[in-house]
# Entry
Amino acid sequence: MTSAGVPSESIVERAVERSAAVQRSRLRIAKQVLQMLDAARRLIAATGDEFTTQDLVTEAGVALQTFYRYFASKDELLMAVIGDAMTDACEYWAAAGAEIPDPIARLRYYITSTLDRLGSDNQSAAMSRFVVSTRWRLHRLFPAELAEAEKPFVDLVRAGVNEAVDAGQLNPADAEHDSWFVSELTRSVYHYYAFADHTQSELDLIKEQLWRFCLTALGGKIQAEKGVAQ
# Structure
């Protein structure tokens, strides 16, 4: 420190270097974690969750000690995969929903789009089955962490419900809790059809029935003569 109370140049330089080192460390950590998550998704698409930690690090191209630096177990990694997939999906739905001007139509999109993933490509279908088959086991082990991982969808539905309430299109008894119940019902339907055989036409019908049930539960109305919700 100089006599004027200003840090000396050498102190400032060391501080800057430490800051740069921290940034490089964070980038390295982010890269390694992303490598492992991407590797896990590839293995899930091929074998579900029937892979070992050694399979994972081999696929990711990282050392076993690197894996344990960030995850205490394979189950923690699987939890991260579920949370990452949920966040990505909700960010996509939120961005697409922002282009829908009508609040009730936007909420319908949020709810029914979850089932669209069941009829998409093989990798999405494999991820859906993985989430369903793994979720309840992880729920027993990490209930609080799983709730946090699934929270983005609950928040998305809650935001959609509140927007429709503000627009006078819905009148739920309890917007906060009803949004959670709608989210859980949507999740249950998704879980069922992830494994149940179905055609695309059957899935389209289920989407319509799911929406009508949720709409009625939230205090909305159906225009029967037009076959559309209001």
Observations:
- The beta strands are 222-223, 228-229.
- The first helix runs from residue 9 to 47.
- The chain has two domains: 1-71, 73-229.
